[in-house]
Write a structure and sequence with these properties.
Helices cover 7% and strands 51% of the residues. It contains 6 helices and 41 strands. It has a 22-stranded antiparallel β-barrel. The longest helix is centred in the first third of the chain and has 25 residues.
């Protein structure tokens, strides 16, 4: 017998939500009283960020809405994957279909086409770009030996380019230390309710090869995560706990400092992930596929009623070289990175075939869609950041160039009773078409995107308490696309190789200006106007688009952001309050449409939207032993005009003026409480609770759209109790993830021919973690 908030009424749930946050807020207010004992008073640690590319700056000295998670907090939160952290970031929504297929939504900017959130791994660009999935499929790099995570909210186009129109996420890894040998070993075992056991092992070693000159730092990890979704409709028999994850990866840094002013950092990261099956589960009776011999079934708890085994493989490599040359007047930085990723996604395609009588007659069996994807990004940046002594003027300026090669393939194949492809199938991107085999339909899209940019920001301090910033970025994007069909809808021999080539180009200038006022060392007020833009593109040219009422191309879209922010430090540096209020105007939105048969997806420019919101977070060091954090956001993201009617049912998920943007909750909130104190000798104890809340939302613009799915609000709680030894570096933690076993409606997916599949957080998981630093 277990308890879940989903078992009680929405009214009770909402009361619990307000009670939870009211409790935390009460603790914050009580913290002032707790801190009156002078012997217990302490200040918050100063947080250093590098997001503005002008060297290290204190978080409270930046005129920027940014949330930062340092190494110690990542360890205290037991973060292994970014999803473990994402739900604790107000204003960030995670659209989730499973590991390696997640989309980040910041400040309500949810769209198809290229990602609207830029993602960086140190200096490497790893931003998702997937026109078939609206910017999803972000790289799921496991977070071991991470220095900190920085989440920049609002357009960051001047420094981070066209893919940062709503924000940027930066993962900063720990670099080699030149003067110390150190290491870490960690092991974890846990058990998931209605699932299997989970095992995690990771380790790090830092070795100075030549003291103060040359050092290497290496980290490796192995994850064996048990599944909790049961595939009950496989013809040969049910399969329990299909959504397993096997992950192996590592990272090596080599740092060389031939002089006090010159530093080279060479790094490589590798990860291979094998996912056993889908993370979707069904709540209601499945589709009736009687036309091909499969009547509907009624699922139980966390059951998937698909007819195929839908696992996927994901391998990635990131290689980088960063050169830094420091002078008295500033620092020159040159960075070159190469990111490669090979994926093979598999998903049940039977509903598409069964929905069309012609196809159902020809192919009366289950079908699986297979998408092999290859992505290569070569990104390069040179910049100079000034450090003029006693000067009111400082600046950063640079140039950026990248080549982004995306090879995408779609194949539809028939499967056998075990839900796996029944005949020969070899995915690839050869210039020759594939063999006939069991492939019913196939097409290939090869795209190369080249981008050149020049950027800069300059600040001027005047009148002692004021600063003005002006920044701009000019960029040019060119892309070429070759597309062709490898198979028609038949089992006949492959069609002749016939390439359809397309190209497009975009030149754009975006700018930013910020006025800051800091009347004293504890208060900083700022007002910002910034812009973000995203390139346009072409729709699939390998199909006769005129027959499907699909537009051949789509135009750029852009955002104008107006923002007021406050950063305030109080109570002798024990309390930090940060808030930002913003108004964003989004023009010519790139959104996904679908043809009247519900088969061909495309992108078009569908109207304008406005997003109004507020973000807030407060951090309190109440005593030496008690630390609290609370954050919340409100977003009103609505369409200003009707999406255009393309005719022929081509944009069925059509929004109307006043509709809210999909997958954008109105309210989000998070709270953390941590209590730590000495126990005996050099041992101390730590207790921590983390709570997140997300308001209800839906997957389409309005409830009248046939594919709309309502996503309920939810509250999730994590807890852990730890013993820490300062002298010998031991840490032993007992933890509970999703303590109340909430069935959170994180995301859901359907089309007019597919059943509704939900994605939730991992069920209640109890475990033990042991680590040793040396």
């Amino acid at each position: 017998m277990y308890f879940s908030l989903s078992d009680v009424s929405p009214v009770v749930q909402r009361r619990f939500h307000f009670f939870a946050f009211g409790l935390v807020l009460s603790c914050i207010l009580a913290g002032n009283a707790l801190a009156q004992d002078a012997s217990s008073r302490t200040a918050l640690e100063e947080v250093v960020v590098s997001a503005q590319k002008r060297g290290d700056q204190l978080l409270q000295d930046t005129s920027l809405s940014i949330q930062v998670f340092g190494e110690q907090e990542l360890e205290d939160r037991m973060v292994r994957d970014f999803k473990d952290l994402a739900f604790s970031i107000p204003g960030l929504q995670l659209q989730d279909i499973g590991p390696g297929d997640r989309k980040y939504i910041l400040r309500g900017i949810n769209s198809s086409g290229d990602s609207t959130v830029g993602v960086y791994y140190d200096e490497a660009v790893i931003t998702a770009s997937n026109s078939e999935d609206g910017g999803g499929r972000n790289a799921p790099i496991q977070m071991h030996d991470i220095q900190q995570v920085e989440v920049l909210k609002g357009p960051q186009g001047t420094l981070y380019g066209a893919n940062s129109m709503s924000g940027t996420i930066r993962f900063l890894t720990n670099k080699p230390k030149l003067d110390i040998f150190e290491g870490n070993l960690e092991a974890e075992i846990s058990s998931t309710r209605k699932g299997e056991e989970n095992y995690i092992i990771n380790g790090m070693v830092n070795i100075p090869i030549v003291e103060d000159v040359l050092a290497v730092r290496a980290v490796g990890w192995l994850h064996d995560m048990g599944g909790y979704i049961d595939a009950i409709r496989i013809e040969s028999g049910p399969i329990d706990d299909v959504n397993t994850e096997e992950i192996a990866g590592g990272r090596v840094h080599l740092r060389w400092t031939p002089s006090d002013r010159l530093m080279f950092t060479l790094s490589h990261t590798y990860q291979d992930m094998d996912v056993g099956g889908t993370f979707r589960f069904m709540k209601d009776e499945s589709n009736d596929l009687s036309a091909i011999g499969f009547p509907p079934v009624t699922p139980g708890e966390l059951d998937n009623t698909g007819l195929t085994q839908d696992g996927w493989d994901d391998e990635l490599n990131i290689s980088s070289l960063v050169i830094e040359y420091e002078q008295d007047y500033g620092t020159f930085t040159a960075a070159s990175s190469y990111f490669t990723r090979d994926l093979v996604f598999r998903f049940d395609n039977t509903g598409v075939v069964a929905a069309v009588p012609f196809f159902a007659t020809l192919f009366p069996e289950p079908f699986q869609g297979i998408q092999p994807i290859e992505r290569d990004i070569w990104s390069n940046e040179i910049r100079f950041a000034s450090n003029f002594e006693n000067s009111p003027v400082q600046f950063v300026a640079g140039a950026f160039y990248s080549e982004d090669d995306q090879d995408w393939e779609a194949q539809a194949v028939n499967v056998g009773p075990d839900g796996l492809p029944a005949g020969p199938f070899t995915p690839g991107f050869d210039d020759d078409v594939s063999d006939g085999g069991n492939t019913v339909f196939g097409r290939v899209d090869k795209t190369r995107i080249q981008e050149l940019a020049f950027f800069g920001e300059v600040t001027y301090d005047f009148a002692e308490q004021f600063q003005i910033l002006w920044g701009g970025r000019w960029f040019e994007s060119d892309f070429d696309s070759d597309e062709f069909i490898t198979h028609p809808f038949s089992f006949t021999d492959a069609v002749p190789f016939d390439v359809n080539s397309n190209s497009d180009s975009l030149t754009k200038f975006t700018w930013k200006t910020t006025l800051s006022w800091f009347p004293n060392d504890d208060i900083r007020l700022y007002a910002t106007r910034s812009e973000g833009a995203r390139r346009g593109g072409l729709n699939n040219a390998s199909l006769p688009l005129d027959q499907f009422a699909v537009p051949e191309a789509f135009d750029p879209d852009e955002i104008t952001n107006y923002e007021l922010g406050l950063k305030w430090t109080l109570l002798d540096d024990r309390l930090q309050l940060n808030t930002a209020v913003y108004h964003m105007e989004w023009d010519d939105i790139q959104l996904e449409g679908i043809d009247e048969l519900g088969v061909v997806n495309f992108i078009g420019n569908f109207g304008n939207a406005t997003v109004d919101g507020i973000e807030f977070d407060a951090t309190l060091q109440a005593t030496d032993h008690l630390w609290l954090f609370v954050g919340a956001s409100y977003q009103d993201a609505t369409l200003d005009s009707d999406n255009p009617n393309l005719g022929g049912g081509a944009n069925t998920p059509r929004g109307m003026a006043g509709d809210t943007l999909p997958n954008v909750p109105e309210y989000q909130g998070t709270a953390s409480l941590q209590y730590e104190r000495p126990l005996w000798a050099d041992w101390s104890g730590q207790v921590r609770f983390d709570v997140v809340y997300r308001d209800s939302t839906r997957t389409e613009f309005n409830r009248d759209i046939p594919t709309n799915i309502e996503l309920d609000s939810y509250t999730a709680v994590n807890a852990n109790i730890a013993l820490l030894q300062q002298g010998n570096g031991w840490r032993v933690s007992l933890f509970a993830e999703n303590l109340t076993d909430e069935r959170a409606d994180v995301d859901a997916f359907t089309t007019n021919v597919d059943q509704v599949g939900f994605v939730t957080i991992r069920p209640r998981t109890l475990g033990i973690n042991v680590s040793k630093r040396f």
